[in-house]
Amino acid sequence: MEKTIFSIFARACKFLCLVVLAGCATQSSVGAMDITGINYTDTVVEAFTVNGYPGPNVYPHGGGAGGVCCISVPDAWKPGMTVTIRWTDDRNANPAPWKTRVVEVPQYRPEDMGHFAVHFFPNDEVKVLVTMLYPHHPDYPLGSPKRKAK
Hints:
- This protein is α+β, with helices and mostly antiparallel strands.
- Helices cover 17% and strands 35% of the residues.
- The chain has a domain at 30-131: Sandwich (Immunoglobulin-like), CATH 2.60.40.
- It has one helix at residues 2-26; strands at 30-39, 47-50, 53-55, 62-63, 68-74, 82-88, 99-104, 115-121, 125-131.
- Mean pLDDT is 81; it is low at 12-26.
C-alpha cells in the first residue's frame, strides 16, 4: 500500500515537472528598458503613459535625454505589435484631458533594445521606437526635435 501511494506521488511529480517545463519552453523572453519621450511640438507634454507605464514630462522641441524605468518589451519583435499611448498637455485641467493613440511598434532587433522612445508630433501624431540611439545621433531615424534655423 505504501509503495502504491509513493508510486502515484512520484508519477504526479513527474507530470507536474513536465507541465512546468513545457510552459517555460513556450514563454518568450523580455527585456526591461527606460521609457523616454521626444517632443516635436510647441506644447509641453505634461504626462504620458505606455500601456499604463509612466513616462517623463517632455518640454517643447526637447526630450530624449532621460527616461523613467521601466517597460517590458519582448526580445523578439513580432508583426502587429502595438502599444497604447496616453498623454496630456494640460495636467492642471480638472479632469485632465487625456489623448489616446494605439501605435504600431516598428521592427527592431535584440541589439536595438536600449530604451523605448515615444515621439510626439504636431496634430497628435505619435510614433514609437525601440532603439539604442538618441535624437542627437546622426543615424536617428526620426531626426532631432530641435527647430531648424531659417
